Amino acid sequence: MKEPKYYEVKAEVVSVRELKHNVVTAILRSKEIADKTKPGQFVNIQVNNKNETVPVLRRPFAVSYTDGDNFEIIFDVVGRGTNILKDMLVVGEQVNVLGPLGNGFDINVNGKEKLLLAGGVGIAPIKKLMQYFTDKGDQVTLIWGNRDKSGFFDIDFFMDQNIKIFVATDDGSLGFEGNVLDILKSEIKNNNLKKINDYNIYVVGPNPMMKAVADYCSEMDHYCQVSLETPMACGIGVCQGCAVKKKKEDGYYLTCVDGPVFNSCDVEIP
To answer: Which of 76, 166, 167, 200 has its Cα between 20 and 30 A from that of 149?
Structure first.
């Protein structure tokens, strides 16, 4: 029998924790999803419960970590769907999860060092990617930027990994004063980082941040991999609601099935 591309499962809630105001992490149990998820893939979670029919649309969340039969999601509580999900996440209860979905990061790359750049809660898929590379013994550098120091969470976890880490804030309240691209350029100039072409580069965060890094890589005759956060309703290419423009030719990609990870040379970052 051919193995399914994705599963629909009732995942048990193992733990729930508020990392900071309106940022929640949940550990869910599903052997199928934990075993099969690759860095950069996501799950779609049904956010109605108690026999309600609304909201109709599922909500997509990157898988940020896996451990045995468990997987983690990290999300901002920003709207109706995520507020409902936060209330649904009760230890011992189950949620309906579809996944793993989408195409993740290209991890079959050459032996260059890995440079991971995260903006805000974009750290979620970056965390899973970091897990993969550190388990392999690759050399990893993480740059994580936020508007101010309140945007960081679980920083001790990342400091304890066998990686080099730089942090930046727009207001200078923690680490470097400036954005992710500012610190990247500064640390290359100060010889704390190698030249940009010496790395495989992976970027997740707000679209303006990813576009700025992608444009800089292009100027340096290089590229990066970006994970787009386009709203994805169905997650399987049916609703056609997550189209993103191709860069090299006419037409569009569907973020949910062609992405969410793209080569920066191939896609117009919105």
So the answer is: 200
Q: How far apart are CA 178 and CA 172, in angstroms?
A: 7
Q: What angle do CA 202, 205, 206 make, to 5 degrees?
A: 140
- Asked if 236 contacts 257 with a C-beta cutoff of 8 angstroms, the reply is yes
In the block, tokens 């896996």 appear at 66
Q: Give dist(CA 156, CA 147) in Å, integer.
A: 19
* Local structure of residue 223 (DSSP, 8 states): -
- On whether the pTM is more than 0.90, the answer is yes
Give the pair of three-digit tokens for residue 240. 């056609």
Q: What domains lie within the chain, and their CATH numbers?
A: 7-101 (2.40.30.10), 113-263 (3.40.50.80)
Residue 205 backbone zone (phi > 0: left; psi -120 to 50: alpha; other: beta): left
Residue type, 181: L
Query: What length is written for the chain?
Result: 270
Please state the rounded mean pLDDT for residues 23-42: 96
CA distance 27 to 64: 10
Q: How many CB atoms lie within 10 A of CB 208?
A: 13
Is 71 in contact with 34 (CB distance < 8 Å)?
yes
Quick one: pLDDT band at residue 53, thresholds 50, 70, 90? low
Average model confidence (pLDDT) for the chain?
92
Please list, in sequence order, all residues whose beta carbon lies within 8 angstroms of the beta carbon of residue 52, skipping any fewer than 6 positions away.
none
- The verdict on whether omega for the bond into residue 260 sits within 30 degrees of 0, i.e. cis, is yes
Peptide bond into 100 cis (omega under 30): yes
Cα dihedral 31, 40, 260, 152 sign: positive
- What does the DSSP 8-state code read for residue 186? H
The residue behind tokens 């949940």 is 26
